[in-house]
Amino acid sequence: MEKFCYQNGRRDFLRKSGTLAAFYLAPTMLVKALPLENVIPVPAPKEKIKLIVNGVERSAEIDSRTTLLDFLREQLGLTGTKKGCAMGQCGACIVHIDGKRMNSCLSLALFNNGKTVTTIEGLAKGDELHPLQEAFVENDAMQCGYCTPGQIMSGIACIREKKAGSREEIQRYMAGNICRCGAYQNIVDAIASVQASGKSV
Amino acid sequence: MKKNIGIENDSPRVDAVEKVTGRAKYAAEHRIDNIAYGIFVCSTIAKGTILSIEEGPARAAEGVLDIISYKNCPSTPGYEPLLADGSKNPKQWWGLKVLHDNIVRFYGQPVALVVADSLENANGAAQLLNIQYQSEAFETDFNSARKDAAKLKTSGNYSRGKANAIEEAVVKVEGEYTIPVEVHSPMELQATIAVWEGDDKLTVYDKTQGPKSMQGTLARLFAIPDKNVRVIVNYVGGAFGNALRGWHNVPAACIAAKKLKRPVKVVLTRPQMFNLTGYRPQSWQEIKMGASADGKFTSIVHNAISMTARYEDFREGIVNASRFLYACDSVQTSYKLLPLDVSAPTWMRGPGEATGCFALESSIDDLAYQLKIDPVALRLKNFPEVNPESKLPWSSNYLRDCYEKGKELIGWSNRPQVPGSKKEEGMLVGYGMANGVFGASRGQASVRAILQDNGMLILQSAVSDMGPGTTTAMIKIAAENLQWPLEKIKFTLGDSDLPPGPTQGGSTTTSTLGTAVHLVCEALKKSLQELAQMHLEDFKNVEIKNIEIKNASIVSGDINVAITELMKKAQKSSIEITKDSQGTNAQELKHATNSFSCHFVKVHVHPKTMEIKIKEVVTTADAGKIISENTARSQMLGGVVGGIGMALKEELKFDHSTGQIINASFAGYRVPLHTDIPKTTVWFVNKPDPIINPIGAKGLGEIALIGLAAAISNAIYNATGKRVRDLPITPEKLGYKGK
Question: Among A102, A148, B550, B703, fewest CB within 10 Å belongs to which?
Fold first, then answer.
């Protein structure tokens, strides 16, 4: 079971980590039982990472299997970024990495070494909400609130990337953000209102 | 886009800022020192026994603290079927006792909990268990099993009028309706953090719709006093019924934490969410309806079968609406359960009524075409002046207002009389409508009011808010009752230590909890009036009825004293009052209490690919007085989205050769996305119900969804002339054969 063996240092690990990540990220129920002969569980390598999260430099030693999402939530306590599926299918965990939106559940934390990450907690300036946060409040663009951070992070990218020209365009660009309570119409209203206001996002 | 018709823009949801900033904390997000992580390993057979669990490499893996299975699960009082004296344990855990025995009852049943010091270590080790099973023959295929009458369990029959009325009917329609398993799939994963203090004090951070009921459940499970269990649930990330009861994660986390003497967090994975937190059971229905030539209903026969787990019966109100939504002298219903080797279903938004109304409201549409009567006119013709089942008068029923407004807003006059006869932008156009109904009731609740000397009014009750905006609505009830500024009222919930509140479900929270808020505000008002008479010179000789409260001041004519001043004079640092509101029911009220909805839908269907595009929805409701317009409107919008999922997208699929669910992810199980959502207009009758409670509000959560699938189906029929009675409706079922 080569997959579980860490042998030749970091470079070798990185080469294999694609497989490892794919295996590790696969939901337990979908994974077939492994042939267990010769499996010797080897401690996962620890990696040192340094990244800037919401303007603050964060250094940590992490288990190399840690996703960016779990790193944010479990280690930094930044639970504003939500875990909805851990499979890149719901958008609840969207953050901005170097300004681009990304499902943080699909990216290992160590892949983001040296990068700049913005989460929902990094949007407001003190009590002053980001224009899209404000628009979400005004348009009641939420119910339970669980998908909301992902919707907002995605919505900001939508406006920044000039994909908010019409309701249909917003809907298409936001289609990866699931809202089960069904606040979709109000979410599109919120994004469209910020787009129309011309405010900087 | 137009907000809403007839309702002014409203103040925001009170917890909106917490939610948009990421500060709102959901169950799994509480920071607990020294926490351990538990991951379920689930069965890979559908039925049988576990022969062995080879833990070897998993137990040796880094960070693994324990692997809990039937082999070492500690004895748990609530798991025991018998008491020490051999009598039946009356406080036995309801449903599957996870990790308790070596029996496998469905594919994907949790059979072990791997607990480790980190999520990564737990996940890694969970892959290393080697479990051997002895399989047994099993059955998961509802549609084949339901044909064998011997497999069905009767769960209630009803009959009124003439048993053979259907045979004598002048005009008849009939049809069989099938709905697959649908899954709540809230965005928040089911999660529990269990923290023990010693052997008999437990704090649980849990995703639950009922903190108080969960407290009792856990007290019974561990045979400890209720007061030793504290359940905290500040925010619920959607639930739609699936957090009405504790699922396997709850006992597993608590048992593991107790065994390890360390806090344990168990969060389900998304695939596990698809069969470990309930679902809307698969169902088969048959409806026969008869009418006179002029369109008076003479007979309704509604038979239903729904799926349940072999280890637990679950029944819901599938055939209920057929008995009372329309005037009809002869009605027969029957309901049967079909136990299969699947996990247990539970109430999913709209519950059985949503299932039943799909069949009933589609049948009425069929009848309307047969009779050549407009579907709205046909419903008007059969409007029941009293509830035809209980014979009680309605506490309120403004469905006729809904019909009128809905027709106007959707542009009903544009509806083609002949199905499939109208095109717009190259697409077939259709309009449809359907009703929804659900019981409006009022249960027991208790609310504490604490008025602080700074004028802040704190209201408290042990409820949770899964998203409808309970906090917001309760604050509005108090603000209106006491004429108090909104920003000076707080509603605290989500903690079982607070006065007992209801479980949030069945569209009852506003009615139940709102009544208690109303009562406690009345009591507070009286107490303030008396205090004013006692301590304020100017009020000494003023009669109580002439003392008003306005804007956090006590007022009589021109005299106006701030409450803060009054409290200072009375030397009160705070005033605390708790009020209980008793529940009631239709018999006591001598009225039938129901909420009603009527949905209008316009669709486009591509004439070749049969692609379905919902163009517009108008959703109207008689839910009594609307307490919080903003959040109520959102709830209705959500019901429409849920209805679109039910009608066009959602279907959990099994591989019946293994019993495994094959689409347990958001990629496989299709839910409505941004791109599926049409322009939607919400309209409320907004007339207070004079009977059900002092605040005049009925319920909203369920009726927002009930009836929608039929309205969509009826619109598709109007567009295409094709009636699909098997959900979800897809282009293939409309006749698209592929390229």
Answer: B550
**Is the domain of B573 the same as that of B685?**
no
| Catalytic residue from among B487, B537, B702, B732 | B702
- Strand (E) or helix (H) holding B171: strand B171-179
- If one counts the domains in chain B, the total is 3
Q: What is the pLDDT of residue A37?
A: 54
pLDDT tens, position by position, A157-166: 999 999 999 9
Rounded Cα distance between B414 and B411, Å, is: 6
Are B108 and B227 contained in the same domain?
Answer: yes
Q: Which residues, including other chains, have CB under 8 Å from residue B670's CB and lie 6 or more apart?
A: B645, B649, B650, B651
Beta strand residue intervals within B33-146, DSSP E: 36-42, 48-54, 64-69, 103-104, 110-116, 130-135
Class of domain A131-197: mainly alpha
Give the one of B39, B270, B673 whose C-beta lies nearest to A85's C-beta.
Answer: B270
- Please judge whether A133 and B189 are an interchain contact, meaning their C-beta atoms are less than 8 angstroms apart: no
Is omega for the bond preceding B672 within 30 degrees of 0, making it cis? Answer: no
Output the pTM of the full model.
0.94
Residue B675 belongs to some domain of the structure: yes
Q: Which residue of B has its CA nearest to A146?
A: B237
Residues of A in contact with B654 (CB under 8 A): none
Judging contacts by C-beta atoms under 8 Å, the chain A residues touching residue B20 are 120, 129, 133, 136-137, 142, 145, 148-149, 152
| Domain extent for B467 | 445-583
Of B233, B242, B234, whose CA–CA distance to B190 is shortest?
B242
Please name the residues in contact with B498: beta carbons below 8 A apart, sequence gap of 6 or more: B448, B460, B461, B462, B492
Q: What ranges in B389-508 are assigned the alpha helix state H?
A: 399-410, 470-482
Model pLDDT for residues A71-123, shown as the tens digit of each residue: 999 999 999 999 999 999 999 999 999 999 999 999 999 999 999 999 999 99
Within an 8 Å CB–CB cutoff, is residue A47 touching chain B?
no
Contact B187 A179 (CB under 8 A): yes
Radius of gyration of chain B (CA): 27
Contact A177 B58 (CB under 8 A): no
- State residue B56's pLDDT score: 80
What chain B residue is nearest to A30 in terms of C-alpha separation? B271
Q: Is B170 inside any structural domain?
A: no
Q: Which of A78, A136, A180 faces B20 most closely, judged by CB atoms? A: A136
Minimum distance, in Å, between the CA of residue A114 and any CA atom of chain B: 22
pLDDT of B353 over the 80 cut: yes
Q: Does residue B515 sit within a domain?
A: yes
